[in-house]
Write a structure and sequence with these properties.
Number of helices: 4
Radius of gyration: 15 Å
Strand content: 35-45%
CATH superfamily: START domain
Distance between the termini: 13 Å
CATH architecture: 2-Layer Sandwich
Number of strands: 8
Structural class: alpha+beta
Length: 165
């Protein structure tokens, strides 16, 4: 893995946003697949030693990804992603949240809107990720869960997965 890969994680509390720019040393087609296919997401999405386990995924506008992050002790934290827009090989957006194993929203935790854009640079792919929140307190609550550290670790897992393929 190139150590010169772009990684920017910025928090914009005034506008209730988190922005992440992350470069991957792989072609767009492989990076897109890793973000949109359950069997690949399960291999990188969770920070180690946790594992992502997809219960169901329907990657289409109006579709949902329902999955659990499973800890080494068997603890499961359920989440969902509801897909709002998809422009194949370019971008997709979703609303995510925590839920129970049946997808019922857990209102204790905030929901966020994600916009993911994929940029083919020739030698690599840059993914631009924007998370929007309704309130600054919701953004702060997500950060308190260790989101930055966990998501950064997950993106590192994706580097490893892409290097294998």
């Amino acid at each position: 893995m190139k150590s010169s890969l772009l990684m920017n994680f910025t928090v914009d509390k005034a506008n209730k946003k988190i922005n992440v720019e992350r470069e991957f040393a792989a072609p767009l087609k492989k990076v897109w697949a890793a973000w949109t296919q359950a069997e690949l997401l399960d291999q990188w999405w969770a920070p180690k030693p946790w594992k992502a386990q997809t219960k169901s995924m329907d990657f289409k506008v109006g579709g949902r990804w329902l999955y659990a992050m499973t800890g080494p002790d068997g603890t499961k934290q359920w989440s969902f992603a509801d897909y709002k827009s998809i422009d194949p090989q370019h971008s997709f957006s979703l609303v995510d949240g925590f839920c129970d194993e049946n997808g019922k929203l857990n209102t204790t935790f905030p929901q966020s809107s994600w916009s993911n854009t994929f940029e083919d640079t020739g030698d690599s792919t840059i993914v631009h990720i924007e998370l929007k929140f309704n309130k600054a307190e919701e953004l702060e609550k997500l950060l308190e869960t260790g989101f930055k550290e966990g998501f950064t670790m997950g993106l590192g897992n994706l580097d490893e997965l892409l290097a294998k393929k």
